[in-house]
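Why do we care about 3D structure at all? Because function follows from shape, and shape follows, mostly, from sequence. That is the central idea of this module. The next example makes it concrete: a single protein chain, its amino acid sequence, and then its structure expressed as tokens.
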Amino acid sequence: MRIGLYLDGEPAGGALQHDITMMHAFAALREWGYDIVIGCGSDRWIEYFPNWDPAFIRMTANPLARVLSKVWRSARLPMALWRGLTPHFNTPARAMLRQKCDVWVFSSSAAWSFQTPVRSLVTIHDLMHRYERRFPEAGGEYDYREQLFGNICRWATGVLVDSEMGRQQAVESYGIAPDKVFALPYIAPARTFNPSAPADFAQRCPLPPKFIFYPAQFWAHKNHANLIEAMALLRQRGLDDVQLVLVGSKQNGYAAVQQLVEARQLREQVHFLGYVLDEYMAEIYRRARAMVMPTFFGPTNIPPLEAAAVGCPMALSGIYGMPEQMGDAALYFDPASPASIADALARLWTDDALCADLVTKGRAKHAAWNQVQFNLRLKEIVQKQV
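And the structure:
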């Protein structure tokens, strides 16, 4: 059986960790006797395959194909006709067809998945542009995403989602047959398991002795504002020793969060580390009292899996698929309520027995679902496609 993995664009952004997980799964498929092909939009992807040498096919669209694709989609012309025409002038389409794969797996929601007449398993990470349209980063490309995900659900042989909640949302949003949507939950990425801190960790990441950790960029949906309000409530309640560590680039809503910290007189309790390289993240989790994640986006997220893997207790938004993802290994709160967030933080900060229990349950979660189980689940799904 010949299987292709398509990695879109450049290796970057939040989806990269899932891409790396998928690469490891394809390495396992090769060991199980599958014939593997890797199609990628950039030569930089080769750096992420250090231990094996798969067949790489560079798939970069020629300018004519890019222009025609944009015009075609903007005019909403029939996709069936495009799928018939594209192999005649589109370099990625010709390359995919030439490989004669039984199925192509797309690690992200790439348009080539439905523009090319191949059997495909396509990943849809989330549909928050529909469910959380109030946030500019979700609703700003609403029409584009509707067209993208609608075509994926129309033309893909199967769709990969992160959870049963993700499965339900795909079915109710686009009418795709339920038996074509497969839950393949995220796992903690490889970066989580760095055995020791880099030599310059203390210099690069100055941390208080005890702290709550929130690993997130400063997008509005990440909900730093209500987290800061929760910190202010804790101070009013007498818990003025709670320390919060934030990481993320100084862009998007960073300035607004800083201003709120100043306005609530929390400068001594909230620490901004800026952008932190992957190799430093595991040690921050290990040193944290707990991790908090008040995001409005789901269905699920990767940071809770990282926290569970290294033994960091956590409190999460109790919405979408997050309770499904972590079960009893986390506390849950209403992300729209600073008081609810504050209650969870107070428990984590003061209750040693609770934290120890959450650590035990988190480690059990990780043991039950990690790269080995992910590989086997992907194999099961792929076999259903041919």
